[in-house]
């Protein structure tokens, strides 16, 4: 995640994620319209620093307000408290500087991993998380062989924590990059994309912009699940009812984290231009899963 306000910052390079947020708005409206709770506390887990988190939160709040209007209830809509969560290394200064001035909610930052407990028991009504669960808590040895095992452990920890933090009947909306059930995880576009990123880093190491040791030690902690795999993990957990599980659209997820991001982006653009494969949308086999879960515990 590139920090700050430069031209290569995340807020300027998260268009794929923004598209998913926009597609999801209608689905959030439908979910809240059938919700029996009067939501007050909302959390966005893995919020990063870009504007997408504010759009997601606003969609949720507008959906809840629409619920009151549609029912003709002559009562004031509740006050909203929104918690923005990400790792300690996230640029929260940029995030809060960018808060919409006309927002209809109180805002607070919560630092830490969502694979553990972040909030008091039964304190949240709606939790949203987009493009976050594919990042593993630890890098297992031989990632492609053991990634599924680590992902299963992480999802179990995540769902157990969320089940305790949500009120009974509270909603969890997840948007997770994945691969179709019939495609090998090694065949997705992201694998080749990361090979290209690795090539950029090695080029930069050769000219002294970074060290080969640092490149060798660098390992992205990502894992792409599948609809069948994720459904089985949720059902095994038993804390949630699956209200909806849908494939939203095909997407390429770009996630980079390094202290030489500006130079890396420049190298990356040149590399992409050299290989027409990366300019072909049909090469992208990835999907985005929308999962709406209701807490039943």
Automatic annotation (TrEMBL):
GO biological process: methylation
Protein name, per record: S-adenosylmethionine-dependent methyltransferase
Gene Ontology MF annotations: metal ion binding; methyltransferase activity
Cross-referenced InterPro entries: MeTrfase_7, MeTrfase_capping, SAM-dependent_MTases_sf
Organism domain of life: Eukaryota
Keyword Metal-binding: yes
Keywords: Magnesium, Metal-binding, Methyltransferase, Transferase
């Amino acid at each position: 995640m590139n920090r700050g306000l430069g031209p290569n910052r995340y807020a300027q390079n998260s268009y794929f994620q923004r598209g998913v947020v926009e597609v999801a708005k209608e689905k959030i409206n439908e979910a809240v319209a059938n919700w029996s709770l009067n939501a007050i506390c909302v959390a966005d887990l893995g919020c990063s620093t870009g504007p997408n988190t504010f759009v997601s939160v606003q969609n949720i709040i507008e959906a809840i307000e629409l619920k009151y209007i549609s029912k003709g209830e002559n009562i004031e809509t509740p006050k909203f408290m929104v918690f923005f969560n990400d790792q300690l290394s996230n640029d929260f200064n940029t995030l809060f500087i960018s808060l919409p001035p006309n927002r209809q909610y109180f805002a607070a930052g919560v630092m830490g991993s969502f694979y553990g407990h972040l909030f008091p028991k039964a304190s949240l009504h709606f939790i949203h998380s987009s493009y976050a669960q594919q990042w593993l808590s630890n890098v297992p040895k031989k990632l492609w062989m053991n990634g599924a095992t680590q992902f299963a452990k992480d999802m179990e920890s995540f769902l157990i924590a969320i089940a305790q933090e949500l009120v009974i009947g509270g909603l969890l909306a997840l948007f997770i990059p994945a691969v179709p059930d019939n495609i090998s995880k090694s065949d997705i576009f992201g694998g080749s994309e990361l090979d290209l990123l690795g090539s950029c880093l090695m080029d930069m190491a050769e000219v002294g912009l970074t060290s080969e040791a640092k490149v060798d030690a660098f390992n992205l902690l990502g894992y792409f699940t599948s609809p069948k795999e994720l459904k089985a993990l949720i059902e095994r957990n038993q804390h949630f009812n699956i209200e909806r599980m849908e494939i939203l659209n095909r997407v390429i997820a770009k996630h980079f984290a390094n202290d030489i991001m500006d130079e890396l982006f420049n190298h990356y653009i040149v590399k992409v231009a050299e290989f027409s494969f990366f300019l072909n949308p049909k090469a992208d086999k990835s999907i985005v899963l929308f999962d709406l879960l209701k807490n039943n515990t």
